[in-house]
Amino acid sequence: MKSIFLNRLGAAVVLSLGMAGVSWAAGSAVVPDTAPAHPAFSVPGMEKASAEVALKKGNAERGAVLAQQFCGICHQFKAGQESVGPDLAGIAGRKIASVTVYSYSPALVALNNQSWTDQKLSDWLTSPMHFAPGTRMSFPGLPSADQRADLIAFLHTLGHADEKASPPAQ
Ligand code: HEC
Question: pTM of the predicted model, to two decimals?
C-alpha cells in the first residue's frame, strides 16, 4: 500500500513540475521578457533624475587629457582638419556624419538624420561598433562612465553646433 502511495505522490510531483514548466514556457512565449516601451506610470521628476545619473557631469580638463590619449591619433579638434577621422569641432549637437569633405562609412551616413546629443555621444563612445555596426572608427570604446562624461565635457569646449548659423565651409 505504501509503495502505491509513494508512486502516486511521485507521479503528482512529476506532473506538477511538468505543468509548471509548460505554464512557464507558455507565459514566456506570450509575454516578451523586455522592458515595456512606455512605463505603466511615471513618478514626476524620476526620468530627469535617471538621465542625470546616466550622464554625469564631466571634468573638461581631465577630458582634454583623455582626448589626447584616446582620440588624438585619429581626430583633430579644429574645423577643417580631417585626418583618419573627421574633425571634432562643434561635435556636440552637430549632425551625425556631416563634415562634407570627409568620407564616412555607410553605417554612419545612415544616421545622418540625427544629431550628436550627449546621450548619443556617450552611447557611441561606449561602443562605436554597437552604436553604428559597420563603422570605420576602430576604437573599442570607453567602458568607464566617468571617462565618457569627462570626454563629453571636453567635446563641449570645442564649440557647439547650435551656436553657429551654419558650420564653417572648409
Ligand atoms: C583609430 C582611429 C580613431 C580613434 C582612436 C577614434 N576615432 Fe572617432 N572616428 C574615427 C573614424 C574613422 C570615424 C568615422 C567613422 C565612420 O565613418 O564610420 C570617426 C568618427 C567619430 C565621430 C563621429 C563624427 C561625425 O562627424 O559624426 C565622433 C563623435 C568621434 N569619432 C569621436 C571620437 C572620440 C571622442 C574618440 C576618443 C575617445 C575617438 N573618436 C577615437 C576614427 C577614430
Answer: 0.71
Ligand 1 cavity residues, CB under 6 Å: 70-71, 73-75, 84-86, 88, 91, 96-99, 104-105, 107-108, 116, 125, 135-139, 151
More confident residue, 148 or 10: 148
Alpha carbons 149 and 63: distance in angstroms, whole number: 8
Helical (H) or strand (E) element with 93: none
Cell of 109: 551616413
Residue 31: predicted pLDDT? 72
Q: Are 102 and 86 in contact (CB under 8 A)?
A: yes
d(CA 142, CA 125): 6
Q: What fold is seen in the domain 53-163?
A: Cytochrome Bc1 Complex; Chain D, domain 2 (1.10.760)
